[in-house]
Amino acid sequence: MQFPRYALVPAPGDTARHALALCQDVAGLFAEPARPARVRYELRGCEPRGELSRAVTQAVVEGTAPFGTLVVDLHGTQWALADTRVLGMRGDVVTVEAAGEPRRAHHSADPVPCGNLIRVTRAAPEEETHTDVTFVGCSPRGELRDALAAGAEEFREVRYQGLTRIGDHHHEGEAGRITGWDTSARHRGLLDLTLSFPRTRLVPPATGEIWDLFWRSRPTEPGTWKRFAGAARGEWLDRAAAHGAYGAPELVPGATYHLDGADIVDEDSFQCALGETVLGPGRCFRAGAPAAIGEELSGATVVWHRADVARACLGVLPYRGRRPATFQELADALTDAGVRLVLD
Predict the structure, then answer these.
(1) 211, 335: one domain
(2) Which of 114, 121, 187, 288 allows an S-S link to 46, with CB 3.0 to 4.6 Å?
(3) Residues 217, 195: one domain?
(4) First vs last Cα of the chain: how many Å apart?
(5) CA distance 242 to 214
(6) CB 53 within 8 A of CB 59
(7) Is the domain of 14 the same as that of 158?
(8) pLDDT tens digits, residue range 6-55?
């Protein structure tokens, strides 16, 4: 198959080692993902310590305590619970509430050792948590091809990959069970494969648009990044960085760059705007940290027009983990690295 856009691959722990299908397109994948349901768990045989011990104490007094991501070690295997709240403790059982299902974690610095992790909340029926997504124009291979030839009605859970034009994958995610297939109406000799796809793993439409824009090469129209906001700008930067520096102009010592700051309202938009100003449309600095960007521009002059917009929008937010850089931190990172910064 020439230039497939997607691949279906084995899920973790599967004995298969190679792609199960290559596909030309997909229908139903791009929609706003559902918020993960809140699920209550019991951590049995636990040894609360550090942050978890403090959260348990707060929950006993106040009834609940926010925790963030909680990593539990069950006999050598680590599992992460996202957006966790601690509800209390009785004996050696800690009760928590988290967003969705636990996911495998690796090499966490301080996991909480527990004997068992028990789901207390009853699981919702699949028709509420999953939806049909169809991968279109697929060429099955390996075990999937053999299963179809044998007349199997379903196939086990798989994952999917979004592919670049040269066949590298830029995204991988959970895809669910293959529940049906039919001859493709749009692609002669190929099949359409329908999966029971988790609603929480659907991909926002803006992300799909960015994948399309970067599939062949990179966008060439200036300011295209401005069409996107929030998390989509992070995806834009990921795709721009993945395309590398080939064809980018060489940085000239002592050069002057005029940065249009009218749309710089957060750290991602700062990186999008500065990358386009210096390197051209659809490009960004692969080293995204402001200090690292400053080092690459050392000796240059950046005239930051409409700096008042960023000054007003980039403040300190009460983030538990890493927070976005403030306007002053962005400016200081450039000047500390040797960039002459002119605020206009």
Answers:
(1) yes
(2) 114
(3) no
(4) 53
(5) 10
(6) no
(7) yes
(8) 999 999 888 878 899 999 999 999 999 999 899 999 999 988 888 999 99
Q: Which domain holds residue 173?
A: 6-33+130-203
Residue type, 98: A
pTM higher than the cut 0.85: no
The verdict on residue 21 lying in a domain is yes
Distance separating alpha carbons of residues 221 and 253, to the nearest angstrom: 26
- Kindly report the number of other CB atoms within 10 A of residue 23's CB atom: 27
Q: Examine the domain organization and report whether 197 and 227 are in the same domain.
A: no
Three-state SS string over 32-66 comes to: CCCCCCEEEEEEECCCCCHHHHHHHHHHHHHCCEE
Distance CA(214)–CA(246), nearest Å, equals: 14
Decide if 124 is inside a domain. no
Half-sphere exposure of 280 (CA within 13 A, CB side): 12
Would you report the helix, strand and coil content of the chain in percent, each value rounded to 5? 25, 35, 40
| One domain, residues 159 and 273 | no
209: left (phi over 0), alpha (psi -120 to 50) or beta: alpha
Do both 213 and 339 map to the same domain? yes
Other beta carbons within 10 angstroms of residue 47's beta carbon come to: 13
Contact (Cβ atoms closer than 8 angstroms) between residue 344 and residue 303:
yes
CB of 99 closer than 8 Å to CB of 82:
yes
Q: Clarify whether residues 277 and 337 are in a common domain.
A: yes
Burial pattern 164-186, b for ≥16 Cβ within 10 A else e, equals beeeeebbeebbbbbbebeebee
Asked, for residue 142, whether it belongs to a domain, the answer is yes
The three-state secondary structure class of 180 is strand
Count of domains for the chain: 3
Say how far apart CA 71 and CA 207 lie, in whole Å.
29
Domain endpoint, select from 203, 224, 249: 203
pLDDT in tens, 119-132: 999 989 999 999 99
Domain presence at residue 260 = yes
